[in-house]
Design brief:
The chain is an alpha/beta fold. The chain is built from eleven helices and eleven strands. 36% of the residues lie in helices and 23% in strands.
């Protein structure tokens, strides 16, 4: 791991620490248990961190750091690319075989077509080319589920991912990363869904992807709204390294030389439920169509964000709030009953 004194997003030295978290290796977890028994999720992740990545049993400290220049929140120190590859290899050789045997709590992604349709409909509103015969690249696309609707419309779906595994019909596996592409390869649409939060150099990836985008092409980026709560509650430091807001995502796209034509924060279905996500569409042209965004500090403000949602969809959020109050009352009653009866 490498401690950085500048922002990985914009290289500014205007960074401040928000909090520190110390992680310790899990107790009484062995490789045999990891391979054959049900182990709590966070114990699995921490075992991989200490046994595989760090090769040490010493506790390790991470700092959640905010860049005051671009609004980017990141964990420091940073994993190197090699360490990220070690984590991925451990997942593929230890955790994936176990889950395929039905050991553990793993559940396949749900509503995959619904999600693919949402992505297609959003991009189609800005896509000036014909939906048929377009080249669509899904970076980190795994099985290719997000490409299904594009393929139904006549496009060809391509995937770059760390491992060539089972893929949906009509997709083509190209390799692990951009080094497996030819220099002149161009794509009409590039999907980058829930990838940048995992990388040690996400801005570098954006710049490199831009060189493979067709002149009239679009790049779609989808990320969790990590600046809201996730950076503060992350129990697994190996899962996400970067915590985005509209501000930091917007500035990342602009620094990559892209025009941001759509930017939003939505509570939407991803794989196993709804979560607050950032959605952006950008293209290769001069200027900036979108000029306004929510700042990181705004989206970190829980109450301000709560009232923003209440104003936008009052009935939905009022019912959600009442449900939470009801759940807490019921829980309190159960605790009282268990204590005094």
């Amino acid at each position: 791991m490498i401690k950085t004194d500048v922002c990985p997003n914009c290289n500014s030295d205007r960074i401040i620490n928000l909090l520190e978290r110390i992680y310790s290796p899990p107790v009484n977890v062995t490789r045999e248990m990891m391979e054959n028994e049900k182990v709590p999720y966070f114990d699995e992740r921490l075992w991989i961190l200490f046994e595989k990545v760090l090769a040490s049993r010493e506790p390790v400290k991470f700092e959640a750091t905010l860049c005051q220049a671009c609004g980017f929140i990141f964990y420091n120190p940073r994993f190197t690319h090699h360490e990220i590859m070690i984590q991925a290899e451990a997942d593929n050789t230890i955790l994936v075989p176990k889950t395929m045997r039905g050991v553990g709590d793993w559940v396949p992604a749900q509503k995959k077509y619904q999600r693919a349709k949402r992505i297609y409909n959003l991009i189609s509103a800005f896509n000036k080319g014909s939906a048929a015969k377009q080249r669509i690249l899904d970076y980190g696309g795994k099985h290719g589920h997000n490409l299904v609707v594009f393929i139904e419309k006549g496009s060809t779906g391509y995937i770059l991912d760390l491992k060539d595994i089972w893929r949906v019909s009509g997709t083509v596996y190209l390799g692990k990363d951009l080094t497996d592409l030819d220099k002149g390869d161009r794509y009409d649409i590039i999907l980058l869904c829930h990838v940048m939060e995992h990388l040690n150099d996400p801005s570098g990836l954006l710049r490199d992807l831009t060189s493979h985008l067709a002149d009239n092409g679009l790049i779609y980026v989808e990320l969790p709204l990590g600046c809201f709560m996730e950076w503060k509650t992350m129990e697994d430091p190996t899962l996400h390294m970067n915590y985005y807001s509209e501000e930091s995502l917007y500035k990342s796209l602009r620094m990559a030389g892209l025009d941001v034509i759509y930017l939003s924060t939505r509570n939407q279905w991803v794989t196993h439920g709804k979560m607050l996500c950032l959605n952006a569409i950008a293209c290769k042209r001069e200027g900036s169509t979108v000029t306004r965004f929510k700042t990181t500090l705004e989206q970190m403000d829980r109450m301000k964000y709560f009232w923003y949602n209440m104003k936008k969809t009052p009935k939905k959020h009022a019912l959600r709030m009442l449900k939470k109050i009801n759940d807490r009352i019921v829980q309190s009653i159960r605790i009282c009953i268990s204590r005094y009866l």
